[in-house]
Amino acid sequence: MSSDYEISDDEHEYYEYDDEDEEMVDAEDGSASEIEVDGFGNDFKVGVRQERKIYEVDYSALSQPEVERIMQADVDHISSIFGVEPPVAAILLRHMNWNKEKLIEKYMDNASAVAVAAGVELPPREPTPPPSKSSSSRGSMAGPQRTTRRLSADKGSDSKGKRASPPIDAEPFVCPICFDDSQTEFLSLLCDHKFCAGCWKEYITSKVRTEAECMITCMAEGCNIAAPDPFVEKALADDRETWSRYQELLVRQFVACIPHLKFCPYPSCTYTVSCPAAATKSSLTQIVPIVTCGASSAHVFCFGCPIDADHRPVVCAVARMWLQKCEDDSETANWIKSNTKECSKCQSTIEKNGGCNHMTCKKCKYEFCWVCMGPWSEHGTSWYSCNRYDEKASIEARDAQTRSRASLERYLHYYNRWANHEQSAKLSMELHAKTEKKMEEMQITSALTWIQVQFMKKAVDVVFRCRMTLKWTYAMAYYLAPGNQKELFEDNQRDLERAVEELSELIEAPIDPETIMSLRQKVTDKTVYVQKRNEIMLEDTAKGYLEGRWRWNTHVEGFDTD
Amino acid sequence: MAVSSRRLQKELMDIKKEGTPVGIELLKADDFSKWILSVEVLGDTVYKGEKFALMFRFDNQYPISAPAVQFVVDDKWSAPEHPICASILGSEWSPVLSVVSVCVTIQSMLASCKVCPCLTAHTRAALLTGRGFSSA
């Protein structure tokens, strides 16, 4: 034990020198703080960082207006190619899930079919195709149409027998939804199905707010004509909240259609992350695309899977398998396997909780020996002791039991460490609050300035982040195939773990005005060292993915089995 | 007056003035939250000679949102809890549809049904409310 401590002390000594070098380098970066906890503070800063670490992924965060600009560019492009109004182009693109190439190809093939399916053109009528409509409709439907301006067209639509609404000139038009004859303002899409402005507003609001639907179609039964954005905006009138919700839905629909975009999963966040490097499934065996949206540095999530946290260094597929395993009841089954035996005749599950080895199955009354699992009749009169331990059948039965017990123990070994780091990380956040207090105290009791007492906060942050890394390394180690690579991995893991525990201990130490300076030195040094170990851990695993160095002990989605 | 009440009042007036289509009867419409109508399947079908009662429940979003429609068995008004899962009462609902037009649709759904006539009304109601029956 003592020699072990010696070694670690030496190591510590060695890195202290190293740390100073790093501080120097960081100071050159123009950083204001003394200890630059690099890779934590800056890890997730978007954009301009020149040297990207090997375990980081190239991505950019986009705000909603930025995504809207990208959408607008696509819309303008389509609009100019097809010669249609931008709102029409937008509906066409939404209809084709923003697949521009496919839209262009299909539109060139049969423009009318695409336009009808998207709801920007009236379907051709079987007996008498409408004389004026089909040619003029596409260009003219961009904005909302006031029916008062289209009296002649109304007659046309009535004669086509679309909807049995009373002729305009005979009696005043009444909205067929609310039958409120005090309504005077009516709106319709290019299909000329007129409804009062109030009903349109109700309808669109209900679609947007309760159904989260951004593809609004005409209210008439079976009518597929889509409402272009200017119409929606006009119908919603002064309801700006619903209008902005509508726009957000449009952005979400766009983002969902584009593989290299992902919406920030944090509640009420409207940022989008673009990560072309992780857009394909196969890329997820080589990188762990942890990103953060531009809204807050706390919005950390994985681009490749639904985990809303940093699960480096484990790739998505393994992280998912691990979480699934931890959630599954399969572990209950494991317990049953380890603690019970099956009656060798009727297969009922039996837990022996006392008594002698002469078992009688409650269900089938089969008598057997708990030790060797063989039938009791063969034991003759040798009660209470089994001398048939080496019978072949008995050995097999016991082997199966041992294997299952070993696998459960193995799982628990990793799970306990995983859970422990998670728990400790939570505690370290509680500690954070206490640390804040400590720092205040320190400012009063010592000559240190605010900047100088920040080392405690940094240390806590580092501990938290490293515990997260450690947590996931246990998930990874559980699935790593035994061999040299796994041993190297576990060496790195051990080094990081030891360093983290030491730092944890330091930051929980009582603060004494006399020793503050030396404590500060120790914590600062240790923080940098821990962070360095974390870098090594992450870098090595990331390199391993790129080199295809990691071998799993089970089949992992996307990896070759060998 | 709320839109839903005015609209239902208008539908009620139309029914009183013009009557209902053949085979459809208004049994109960005491307020604007729950109506009960009966539907008789016309022609030579497996449901010949039987009357089905339909309960309509409206929220104040009607007619923007579809009414909840379900079968009520016998005269006891005790119904299976599931509303009918027809597409016109879900994704294909349009605010221009009315109580009577929903009845007509269900009437024709029943008319085209090829279920064995020995099933009880209750079972049939359950069948119609099941997920499999979504073609309106």
TrEMBL record, chain A:
PANTHER family: RBR FAMILY RING FINGER AND IBR DOMAIN-CONTAINING. Residues 120-166 are annotated as: Disordered. Keywords: Metal-binding, Repeat, Transferase, Ubl conjugation pathway, Zinc, Zinc-finger. GO terms for molecular function: ubiquitin protein ligase activity; zinc ion binding. PROSITE patterns: TRIAD, ZF_RING_2. Residues 171-390, 175-214 form the RING-type domain. This is RBR-type E3 ubiquitin transferase. CDD domains: BRcat_RBR_ANKIB1, Rcat_RBR_HHARI-like, RING-HC_RBR_HEL2-like. Its EC number is 2.3.2.31. The keyword Repeat applies. InterPro entries: Ariadne (IPR045840), ARIH1-like_UBL (IPR048962), E3_UB_ligase_RBR (IPR031127), IBR_dom (IPR002867), TRIAD_supradom (IPR044066), Znf_C3HC4_RING-type (IPR018957), Znf_RING (IPR001841), Znf_RING/FYVE/PHD (IPR013083). It catalyses: [E2 ubiquitin-conjugating enzyme]-S-ubiquitinyl-L-cysteine + [acceptor protein]-L-lysine = [E2 ubiquitin-conjugating enzyme]-L-cysteine + [acceptor protein]-N(6)-ubiquitinyl-L-lysine. Residues 151-161 have a biased composition (Basic and acidic residues). It comes from Pycnoporus cinnabarinus. It is an enzyme of class 2 (transferase). One of its GO terms (biological process) is protein ubiquitination.
From TrEMBL, chain B:
Residues 3-136 form the UBC core domain. Pfam families: UQ_con. InterPro entries: Ub_conjugating_enzyme, UBC, UBQ-conjugating_enzyme/RWD. Gene3D superfamilies: Ubiquitin Conjugating Enzyme. Keywords: Ubl conjugation pathway. This is UBC core domain-containing protein. It comes from Pycnoporus cinnabarinus. The lineage of its organism: Eukaryota, Fungi, Dikarya, Basidiomycota, Agaricomycotina.
